[in-house]
Amino acid sequence: MKSEPDAVLKIPLSTTENSKQNMHLITVVNRAMYGECSARQSDETLEMLRKKALKLGATAIVGVRLVPVVDAGITRMMAYGTARVETAS
Questions:
Q1: Measured between alpha carbons, how far is 51 from 36 in angstroms, rounded to an integer?
Q2: What is the C-alpha to C-alpha distance for residues 38 and 57, in angstroms, rounded to an integer?
Q3: Model confidence over 47-76: pLDDT tens digits?
Q4: pLDDT digits over 6-47, tens only?
Q5: Which domain holds residue 47?
């Protein structure tokens, strides 16, 4: 088995918070039914992500991804990204 270098093992892998860098991974799932995957579904999912970031006090969201999730023939939309929260110095 290949072992990882010590530096790689020290990278924080929390999916909720990295307080040293004021970064938060945030995720939302739009469970509304649209019939077909539409631009409206994507827009509303991104708006949900933006509102969640604002609640955290984020000034930006980077690395945003939209992921369609198909379950029993119904398409839902998931979005995730990293929210950057600025702190006063």
A1: 24
A2: 29
A3: 999 999 999 889 889 999 999 888 887 888
A4: 544 444 444 444 555 688 889 999 888 776 657 788 999 999
A5: 22-85
On whether residue 5 sits in a domain, the answer given is: no
Does residue 62 lie in a domain region?
Answer: yes
Could you give the number of structural domains in the chain? Answer: 1
Burial 46-56 (b: 16+ CB within 10 A, else e): bebbbebbeee
Q: Would 7 be classed as within a structural domain? A: no
CATH number for the domain harbouring residue 71: 3.30.110.70
Compute the distance between CA of residue 31 and CA of residue 41 in angstroms, rounded to an integer. Answer: 10
Global pTM reads 0.69
For residue 9, the surrounding DSSP H or E stretch is: helix 6-9
Measured at the CA of 68, the angle between CA 74 and CA 11, to 5 degrees, comes to 140
